[in-house]
Amino acid sequence: MEIAKANYSLSELVKYFLKLGTLGFGGPVALIGYMHRDLVEERQWISEDEYREGLALAQLAPGPLAAQLGIYLGYVHHGVWGATLTGLAFVLPSFIMVVLLGIAYKLYGGLFWMQAVFYGVGSAVIGIISLSCYKLTIKSVSKLEKEAMKDRWLLWVFFIVMAVVTGLTEREEVWLFIFSGLIYMVVKAPPKWLFKKQTTLSVVLLAGSGFWQYEPGQLEQLGWFFTKAGAFVFGSGLAIIPFLQAGVVDQMGWLNEHQFLDSVAVAMITPGPVVITVAFIGFLVSGFAGAVVAAAGVFFPCYLFTVLPAPYFKKIAKNKSVKVFVDGITAAVVGALVGSVFVIATRAIVDLPSAIIAVVSILALIYVKKLQEPYLILCAAIVGFLLKTYF
Hints:
Layout: H1 10-23, H2 27-42, H3 48-60, H4 65-108, H5 112-140, H6 146-151, H7 153-169, H8 174-188, H9 216-232, H10 241-251, H11 257-269, H12 277-307, H13 313-317, H14 320-348, H15 352-367, H16 373-390
């Protein structure tokens, strides 16, 4: 891709992404909307075609959607340096906030008032993720209409299978994601190499507060685990939750279920990419070093999957086989997310009040216009504190 001349400086773009990373609440859908409004419509730094190409690449490649789009938009006029600096500027503010919250959590997490606050917050998060699951399903698989479901029945098979498998086993099988993508690709858009008599197929899967406390061996485990998470998870930052839940809680035992749910809540109440929850998890496991390693592990594959194909993306984006491969994987990932939410909900919804908080959270997001998740979680925290303190 030829680097076009920009009508703005790299420092201006970096300042914009620092601001977006500091004040950009609302999750990936809201963040990509802010980028379009600010950079395409108002400032006209990025053309409509450049924005669409970046959004398409972000959807095709694994990793957090909003972060990838930001990295691509940095690349458009300022190359690798632009991609690197905009990515760092976008992630850094929320990373700092999450580390500060991690310090507070380690210092006060055992106190009654914080347990009461997260009682309400955890229930609200279940409601928020449940609604997000619904939105992701109708966007990634199909709308809940007879004709649409009939047309994309195979994606619904992947979705249901992964939801059931994840719900029953309480873990994810990454190979099932890849298998789903390959099946859908062969059925819908078989690549030309399938019809050649002699073919060599090579697939490479890229796959106090305790601030300074860490174990070197544990850092290596954290780095490898979160790099796999960044390399295999497609779409919204919420899609990484089942992968993290299976590994962090069930397989590695780094956190218990309540701590994991609290880490998701922290991501919800901070601006920037939702996937920054990994920094909070890393901090709880191995202090500041763990937070850095976890964040670097998740975002580095995202960076590579954006910058490396960027010069050739116009050609890649037209490949129908690539598109349907990603469609198959995405349907399986969303199904796993639904199964994971079921597992988490069975442990977080412990009584009638917590169930009511979750349901009210869903209804509030549906019927209260422009309600942002941080305000909802703040209300849930207050309700949780009052319930546990006075009832």
